[in-house]
Write a structure and sequence with these properties.
The chain has about 220 residues and is an alpha+beta fold. The protein has helices at about 10-30, 45-50, 80-95, 160-170, 175-190, 195-215, 215-220, and strands at about 5-10, 40-45, 55, 60-70, 105, 110-115, 120-130, 135-145, 150-155.
Length: about 220
């Protein structure tokens, strides 16, 4: 292994951190419910698939991506007020912990655990605030820092990779291993710092699925009526 290379983190190393944060999320639920704001939390992408990675020699540790899908919000609550309410609730829930104050990023709230002596980020959590409309489109709470404005951006229909994953696992003896290998390959070749782990995970699934359906032996499994 060399500096800069992405590798998988052992489950026993990151699971206590994940469980600790999910306990904090539960506290956030309790804090916000009397204020009329409720949400469902979902760990997404590679973290949900136990494919947590870290970069050798990096000072950023490993990260997790969560969606906070809004269910109910207070009447006439603006996008900024929604984000402020959730940020303040996390701030309260984090009191007494070793985590830093939540950071208001462009599309997420970020919570980090830092080692100030070593000047590194041990691990971090990104929380996207979203809702789905009646057509199934997903809207993300976006902070335009240049204009100082907040609003929800329609990102269109969110791709659900689970069906692709199941097809891959059904077709290959070690389909899940192929996805893991492809994901790590993309992590190590990625030159776009704005790409989240979730995006690379979906790309890995699509790549393996595309390779699968291009195989002659896959085509022979399809029955034509």
């Amino acid at each position: 292994m060399t500096n800069g290379e992405w590798i998988y983190v052992n489950r026993q190393d990151y699971m206590p951190d994940r469980m600790r944060m999910e306990g904090i999320i539960n506290k956030v639920h309790v804090i916000l419910r009397p204020k009329g704001l409720t949400f469902q939390s979902q760990l997404i992408g590679s973290g949900n698939r136990n494919m947590v990675t870290t970069q050798i020699g990096s000072n950023t540790g490993y990260d997790f991506d969560y969606n906070l899908e809004l269910q109910y919000v207070p009447k006439d609550c603006s996008a900024k007020q929604i984000k402020d309410l959730i940020r303040d609730a996390f701030r309260e829930a984090l009191a007494g912990s070793k985590y830093n104050d939540p950071e208001d990023s462009t599309s997420v709230l970020t919570i980090k655990l830092t080692d100030t002596k070593k000047k590194i980020i041990v691990h971090s959590f990104d929380f996207a605030i979203i809702y789905h409309d009646d057509e199934g489109n997903v809207h993300y709470l976006h902070h335009d820092k240049n204009r100082g404005s907040y609003g929800f951006q329609n990102r269109g229909y969110r791709f659900d990779e689970r069906e692709y994953v199941q097809e891959i696992k059904d077709f290959y003896v070690d389909g899940w291993g192929l996805i893991r290998d492809e994901y790590l390959k993309l992590k190590n070749s990625n030159g776009d710092s704005t790409k989240h782990s979730y995006n690379l995970y979906v790309e890995a699934v699509k790549n393996v699925h595309n390779q699968m359906i291009g195989r002659p032996d896959y085509l022979r499994t399809i029955s034509f009526i």
